[in-house]
């Protein structure tokens, strides 16, 4: 059974590749990797991160407003403003009850939580900020966005680790197809670059330790890959029912035509060895899009650059998509934005099908011979009738979106 | 005391300096219920002046908060 498609009418990006969609695309196609040594991670076994460059929340949001928002919410609000402007949509002109918000976030606001935990331990409970629980819970993302733009419809945060942003867009598509909303602001935001969070990922063995070559640290599908680099940021899409977009004369940038979500039900961090869950999610997305696997011309892979992920994902793409799609992992530039990754990559996939230009996988100097895929090593012109974007999460979740041109 | 309060409102709560006058109301400087609790905590931490958030919430203007601070400060 296939589901109704959804129009993408606006994009907003705040990522390690830049603030704004145009700088993101330029950085991605260059490609200019964002990974760098991070002085805030001194003392942590891994000191690499992908930060949003020159992010000044007080200048972008006002000092008073920024003071009361966790960094992940700051990213989301800036991205949402761009997405709404891009869509030519002023929520104040619309029925707010018909506008929904669905955002993905894996961790909430760990920086706020860690700061206040330090206050608790060093100074005592009486000095913990009364703003703590108005800032760090993941639910604040959707709540603050609703306050920002008067969106009074369904308001949700999806928290399924690295699939959060992808799944959020899938849920938004369903809300639109069911007629619950006319417009949904959908995407994801994450601000995970804190000593505690990065130490946790490092202890798992998930991170690249290429301190001698920071810009080469995130190298998906390369034979010398050793793990991901923790990134931060937000990706927001304005999604609309196609008839709503048409009625207001909106420019449709691309269409989300399918999504699939599954769980491996196998292991908390290792993907199923045959990629059972991601395969099922790909097939579900294709069924939702009423499309055949050989129609897929491009995949924006999860491609974290961990040994296990890249091999499993490559095998499944090879097995499920006989059309030989051109594959890229934009994480070579951005690092891994955890709960925001899938949303940012969905936005990149929209830009890819819209422009017919596939951005390259950065740092892919020597493709792993065990990865039998057609990988983009330079910006490549390609007519794309259908693209998939994948996310796999710690917890065993899988989420896939199918994206088609307008 | 006004200057000390202003310094805290600007430096800690990030209220724009030009909004802060003796006659300004809590609404004018965006002092909602959470910010009142935050201000109560910061006054204690920075100046050792203990005014409960319930008492602060009854202040009609910045001037009223200054007077409460002076009363508490004098009692120290």
Automatic annotation (TrEMBL), chain B:
Q: Which SUPFAM superfamilies match?
A: ACP-like
The transmembrane residues are none
Q: Which Gene3D superfamilies match?
A: ACP-like
What would be the name of the gene that encodes this protein? acpP
Q: Name one Pfam family in it.
A: PP-binding
Look up and give the organism this protein is from.
Streptomyces olivaceiscleroticus
Protein name per Swiss-Prot or TrEMBL: Acyl carrier protein
Annotated Carrier domain residues: 1-73
């Amino acid at each position: 059974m296939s589901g109704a498609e959804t129009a993408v009418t606006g994009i907003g990006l705040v990522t390690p590749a830049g603030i704004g969609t145009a700088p993101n695309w330029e950085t991605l196609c260059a490609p200019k990797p964002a990974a760098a040594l991070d002085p805030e991670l001194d003392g942590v076994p891994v000191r690499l991160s992908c930060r949003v460059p020159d992010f000044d929340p007080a200048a972008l949001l006002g000092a008073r407003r920024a003071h009361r928002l966790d960094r992940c919410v700051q990213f989301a609000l800036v991205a949402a403003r761009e997405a709404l402007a891009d869509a030519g949509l002023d929520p104040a002109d619309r029925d707010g009850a018909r506008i929904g918000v669905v955002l993905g976030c894996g961790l909430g606001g760990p920086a706020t939580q860690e700061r206040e935990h330090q206050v608790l331990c060093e100074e005592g409970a009486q000095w913990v900020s009364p703003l703590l629980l108005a800032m760090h819970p993941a639910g604040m993302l959707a709540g603050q966005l609703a306050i920002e733009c008067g969106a009074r419809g369904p308001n949700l945060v999806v928290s399924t680790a690295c699939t959060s942003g992808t799944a959020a867009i899938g849920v938004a598509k369903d809300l639109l197809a069911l007629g619950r909303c006319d417009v949904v602001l959908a995407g994801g935001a994450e601000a995970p670059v804190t000593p505690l969070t990065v130490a946790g990922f490092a202890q798992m063995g998930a991170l690249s330790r290429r301190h001698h070559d920071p810009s080469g640290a995130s190298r998906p599908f390369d034979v010398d890959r050793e793990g991901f680099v923790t990134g931060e940021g937000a990706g927001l899409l304005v999604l609309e029912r196609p008839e709503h977009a048409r009625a207001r004369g909106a420019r449709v940038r691309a269409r989300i035509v399918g999504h699939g979500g599954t769980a491996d039900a196998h292991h908390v961090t290792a993907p199923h060895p045959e990629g059972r869950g991601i395969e099922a999610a790909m097939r579900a997305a294709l069924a939702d899009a009423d499309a055949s696997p050989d129609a897929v011309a491009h995949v924006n892979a999860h491609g974290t650059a961990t040994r296990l992920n890249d091999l499993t994902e490559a095998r499944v793409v090879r097995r499920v998509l006989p059309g030989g799609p051109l594959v890229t992992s934009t994480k070579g530039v951005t690092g891994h934005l955890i709960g925001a990754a899938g949303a940012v990559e969905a936005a990149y996939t929209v830009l890819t099908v819209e422009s017919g230009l596939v951005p390259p996988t950065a740092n892919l100097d020597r493709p792993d011979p065990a990865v039998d895929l057609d990988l983009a090593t330079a910006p490549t012109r390609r007519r794309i009738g259908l693209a998939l974007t994948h996310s796999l999460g710690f917890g065993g979740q899988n989420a896939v979106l199918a994206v088609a041109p307008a | 005391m006004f200057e000390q309060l202003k310094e805290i409102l600007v430096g800690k709560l990030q209220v724009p300096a030009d909004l802060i006058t003796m006659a300004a109301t809590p609404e004018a400087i965006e002092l909602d219920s959470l910010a009142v609790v935050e201000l109560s905590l910061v006054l204690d931490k920075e100046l050792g002046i203990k005014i409960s958030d319930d008492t602060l919430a009854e202040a009609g203007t910045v001037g009223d908060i200054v007077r409460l601070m002076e009363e508490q400060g004098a009692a120290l």
